[in-house]
Amino acid sequence: MPPHLRTPSALGVDFTERTVHHGPVGLAVRDFGGAGVPLLLLHGAGRTLADWSPIAPELAGRHRVVAMDLRAHGHSDAGPWTIPAVLGDIAAVLEACDIPDAALVGHSLGGMLAAVYADAHPETPAVVNLDGHNEGVPELYAGLDRETALRGMARVREITAAAAGRVLPAEVFETVLEEQMAMGERLGIPAALMQEGAARAVAETPDGRRYLRPEREAGLEMLDRMHRLDLPPLYRRLSCPLLILRAGRLVRQGGELAWFDELMAAYVRGLDGVLSELAAGHPHITVETLDGASHAMLLERPHDVSLRIAAYIDRLSLRS
Question: Rounded CA gap, 241 and 221, in Å?
């Protein structure tokens, strides 16, 4: 598909959208233009490049900014979801957009992938990881005994695996979307942004049923690869600067999910300790917290996130 301009009417954001091919997989890419140190933006699991709509234009005021849909997400094609395949996708986008020296900025899964890519490509100038962490090891869950932590981790995996690419009847699917919109409203996320992201993530089966991408097979592969990542050792051996921007607020579920709240609180306590130790012992690692923001920081606090990204890249004095 040749490059062409589109403007999402709800958000008023201009960009050039194109497809970049990595083997048989077509990857949807938005180029927001701009000049300066180039940035490649990577979204989280089950999300799309639409999450960057309120942030990318601000960054494009001083950077060349490109965002992509990861394989099996948004408007990108599906394909075997392996780490080498996804790293190849990222390399293909960087080459096609002529930004081989781009810093990588990722949210959630995208932040993890940015660090993994930099580990495999030492020439990467910098990585910004926006609250991208997997569940780690049971010892990470501060205040919980090992068996309790393992049970909680297994339960979370079961829930996420059951939901991956689940095809739903029309009325059930509408309920899921309504729940997502209600959650966005509680977090203060603009409805237009939630709607754009949902529309880009929805896919349909031949018989008219709908689901949220990635497809089930790719989604299960993705979850498995995420679970296997051992991030702290990877962070230690990176040769480029790394900013880890932490969410400062947990969104508590309550009710039947009180067990999940307890698990996540323990996880955050343990993670804070690990990240503090990493930052203290490794000069290339910077850890910051965005107070008051949840894991959905891209959508809740886009201006604050863009300021943190730009300030960090500026401090590094990278050449464009």
Answer: 29
Determine contact, residues 270/149, Cβ cutoff 8 Å: no
The pLDDT mean for the chain works out to 92
**Which residue type sits at 303?**
H
* Cα distances (Å, whole numbers) of residue 267 to 142, 148, 274, 295, 311: 6, 12, 11, 14, 28
pLDDT more than 70, % of the chain? 96
Q: Looking at residue 12, what is its pLDDT?
A: 59
User: For the segment 273-309, what is each residue's pLDDT rounded down to a tens digit?
Assistant: 999 999 999 999 999 999 999 999 999 999 999 999 9
CB-CB contact of 50 with 39 (8 Å): no
Residue whose tokens read 């754009």? 196
Q: For residues 96 and 90, what is the distance between their CA atoms, to the nearest angstrom?
A: 10
Q: How far apart are CA 160 and CA 239, in angstroms?
A: 33
Only one residue has tokens 């050449």, namely: 319
User: H or E element: which one contains 21?
Assistant: strand 15-22
The rounded distance, in Å, linking the Cα atoms of 107 and 101 is: 20
